[in-house]
Design brief:
About 30% of the residues lie in helices and about 25% in strands. With about 240 residues, the protein is α/β, with parallel strands linked by helices. The strands form two sheets. A seven-stranded mixed sheet has the order 3-2-1-4-5-7-6, with helices on both faces. It has a two-stranded antiparallel sheet with strand order 8-9.
Length: about 240
């Protein structure tokens, strides 16, 4: 836990104090706004760091909460917790967002399992991650554990979630110069057509499946032809004499 906490602290500092961190947050807020434009639930939960609270603006849910092990007092609905066993009731959240959080913890499979547990039937989970084969991925692999999109899809399938949407974004290289970065804005428009596999990050949206109840067929030990209902005593069942 100590390693994950320090890693999350550095990640939070990078998001809030570096130009690229701000650029990443802006791009991901736009992506989430597009992916969630038709999702109207009651409770949304973002599991990450305080610097990512702006991503909740993309949600149209009534109540929005941020969960993080890093102490934070500026968000009205903030839940301070470690990311091993989430203090949330099973099946109580309509939307869970994991913005790169799986990459910055030492227990990504367990955290994903916990996130899936708290989602209501038909609820959504959104996972944002860096593409390991991109320039962004090469930069971030020194400080986090990158996860391929296919692994995320497989984990969600095992958790009984159905893939709904996926997209790629961040086609500009991670240049920490606002002037140069803005000049390369054209790459965002043509990147998806010319070199989609080199996108810096991906987003995956999946929905919790509703598992139907299987009706149980009762096997009668007694043939109904051998039973008659008495008309003289209410509720009395008597066997027909042979």
């Amino acid at each position: 836990m100590a390693h994950s906490y320090r890693t999350l602290q550095h990640w939070n500092q990078w998001l809030t104090h570096q130009f690229l961190g701000t650029a990443l947050l802006n791009a991901e807020q736009q992506i989430l706004s597009t992916l969630l434009d038709k999702h109207y639930g009651k409770h949304a939960l973002l599991i990450g760091v305080p610097g990512q609270q702006s991503l909740l603006k993309a949600c149209a849910t009534t109540y929005q909460s941020l969960m993080s092990p890093i102490h934070h007092h500026e968000h009205l609905t903030y839940i301070e917790s470690d990311l091993h066993d989430l203090p949330i009731l099973t099946g109580s959240i309509d939307l869970v967002i994991l913005p790169h959080t799986l990459e910055y913890v030492d227990n990504p499979r367990q955290l994903l399992s916990e996130a899936c547990r708290v989602i209501k039937p038909e609820g959504l989970i959104v996972i944002l991650g860096f593409n390991p084969y991109s320039a962004w991925g090469w930069q971030k692999k020194k400080v986090c554990n990158l996860i391929q999109r296919q692994h995320i899809r497989n984990w969600l399938k095992l958790a009984e979630f159905a893939l709904e949407k996926q997209t790629s974004y961040l086609y500009r290289p991670p240049i920490n110069s606002e002037n140069v970065y803005q000049k390369l804005a054209c790459l965002e428009r043509i990147g998806g057509t010319l070199y989609p596999v080199l996108a810096g990050a991906y987003a995956v949206v999946a929905r919790a499946k509703v598992i139907p109840l299987t009706p149980i067929k009762l096997k009668w030990k007694q043939s109904l032809s051998n039973i008659r209902i008495s008309t003289t005593i209410p509720g009395n069942i008597a066997r027909r004499s042979k």
